[in-house]
Amino acid sequence: MPQKKISFLFFLLHIVFFNFAFSQKISEVDKIVAKYPKSFNSTEKLAERIEKDFDSDAERARAIYSWIAFNVKYDYNVYLNSPKAQGFSYSSEAEKQRKLKQINDNLIQKTFKTQKGVCEGFTALYQYLAELVGLKCEIIRGDSKVSLRDIGRKTTSSNHAWNIVLIDKKWRLIDVTWGQGYYDSSKGRMVNDYNPVYFDTDPDYFFAKHFPDSGTFLGSRLSKEDFLNGPLIYNTTIEKDYRIKTPDSGIIQAKNGDKITVEIKNVSKSNQVFYLNKKNQAVKVLNPKEKRGGLEFQILIDNNIGDYVTIFIDTNSIVSFKIVSK
Length: 326
Known about the structure:
Helix content is about 35%, strand content about 25%. It is α+β, with helices and mostly antiparallel strands. It has two domains: about 5-230, C8orf32 fold, CATH 3.10.620; about 245-325, Immunoglobulin-like (Sandwich). The longest helix has 22 residues, at about 95-115. The chain is globular, with a radius of gyration of 21 Å.
């Protein structure tokens, strides 16, 4: 499932500073990979190039991430019109596994050659390339949280997939599907926008937006209900380490006249902090207080507040909450 991003009034400002911001956020590995051919004759040739150019597991894992994110595009049409699961018959477990492997191999090669796919293709290709360069990698399937309607959602079916890769004896979280770009609902199309934030993501942030089907990959971090009822965070929240201290729930029960107290770490009074009312107008927060390495402020619940409140810092959406009347 693609990551969604809210369009806003500062779109032109975003365009002006895009090249500068891009140069700041890519690593030396990314710069090298950006000069690679857009296509290789085979996955093996790409793996050989990565092994030649990079020595460490961390660099090779990042190189695979950046090449896929630079060159493979999310196929939103396939996402909207998902083909039916491919069925087959078999007479033994060995035959079943051979056929499953063939289906997976076909998916990998199709994604690699057409340079298009959905999360299943992205993750299968990442795993295959990782194994070619000697990395241990797995595919994790589960639920994702990307839009306002996901806050408090009741349906809990699996809708996404990502990878974990073993680097320096530690499993690292990777979502290369979200690294390649996002879906812009205002334009009705995918936008290619490389983002390294989903490579080796901080687990606290990653699991605010991903919930694995198997608890093995999550531990006792939180329950599925807590995941669905939590606030919706955005890419910039992760990039800038804007930790949402309060409210800790994404569903806020309030009546007219109530005030919601919000505390966000790593923000100061020098930042422009505001939220949108139901007319999509920016409302600047009043009397913010610097507190414990962050900023605390209040939002008044009145007739101008809609069903959701999204808080912005400078020009970027940071966190959204769902407002439920008492």
